[in-house]
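Render this sequence as a predicted structure.
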Amino acid sequence: MNKQIIENIKKEIKEMPEYKSGAINSIDWMDASQEIGKKFLLNLDETEILQTETGLVLVGASDLEQYITNVEDIGISKNETMNLVKEIFDKIFEPIAKITEENLKKSLNNMNIKWDQRMRFVLSGGDYSFFMKN
């Protein structure tokens, strides 16, 4: 079951905007989570659950609070869970968040938004359809 979920996660990542998918794909989160699982002496099934839960957070299908609960349900202590989640956060989530931010800034800088587009947007009350007009 988890292998199918992982395949769906990979599919979701491919369908994301480039600034997000590029950031996620810049980190080998599957290998990183596997190494962290080994460090915390998780067996193969537990590591697979960790990878699945990590992927679900990356695609926005789960939040961090649920992530912590689900990782704790693997059967490790609360203290080990917090250490494991901290390591996942430091090695996967934080780097991806930073790269996502950088990619988004780059893509926004490459957009050629003119002053009149901004004015129309403000006057529209936030109607994004005005950006579709030239």
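Summary. DSSP finds seven helices and no strands in the chain. The mean pLDDT is 86.
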